[in-house]
DUF4382 domain-containing protein (Halalkalibaculum roseum), 282 residues
Amino acid sequence: MKNLLKNRISGFSIALLLAFSIFVTGCDTGSDAKTGTMTVEMTDAPIDTADAVNVDIERVEVNRVGDPDGWTTLNDWTTLNEKKETYDLLNLANGATAVIGRAALEAGTYPQIRLVLAEEGHSVEVDGNVYDMKVPSGAQTGIKLNINAEIEEDIEYVVLLDFDASRSVVQAGSSEQVPYLLNPVVKAKEKAITGNIEGTVEPAGSEPVVYAIDNSGTEADTLASTVANTEDGYFKLIGLEEGTYDVSIDPRNDNYAIENITDVSVTVEETNSLGTIQVSQN
């Protein structure tokens, strides 16, 4: 009888120990979670009809497979900046970027990124005059972009957002209270699988806009553009997927002709330098 009672007590103790172990393990799942880093950089495809395009970004968020309704915020302003910034998109040209989000994330697949703009605080400068821009109500809820990012332990994953100012700034209709609307056109790419094209246009006074054009499909598609530096003519097109492109040099100065360069190759993580490109006078 004593042995039987002893065995029952011993069995109960083991069961209690196992239950406690499971409970402790369940409460501690987050402490040993493997994490990597996601960084979000923003660049711009320029607009030649404005002197500044100021955009106020409220939040940058990503969601994770297994948690489709939950979003993690990447732009903690206490670590990125002293205060939330308004970005002039026209300063983000020729390879320049701004970090608008960075955070440690649990390893896994993150299918989407969401860019949430502030309700107000956006403006455009045209011919020395600054005008407020209104964001359509649909865009205020966030621009969702597919990225399918695979976050791995101790690895930084960099997302490049190409905010196309030339397509995003539109003149408002007569029914609007402001003359311009900000209707965001944004592309997202994994920076690690892209390459770049650079060169120098002479003379710089031709004021060229430079385009990278994909002619592989049934219709030509402009995948990147920038305004060459007005002082030295330097340009850099970034965030291009591996492949072959046509580069078009389109001077804004009407005294110069368009120059096209075909079959320009792009290799991942490399920059193809085209050297000096001379544009001819009309």
Q: What stands out?
A: DSSP finds four helices and 20 strands in the chain.
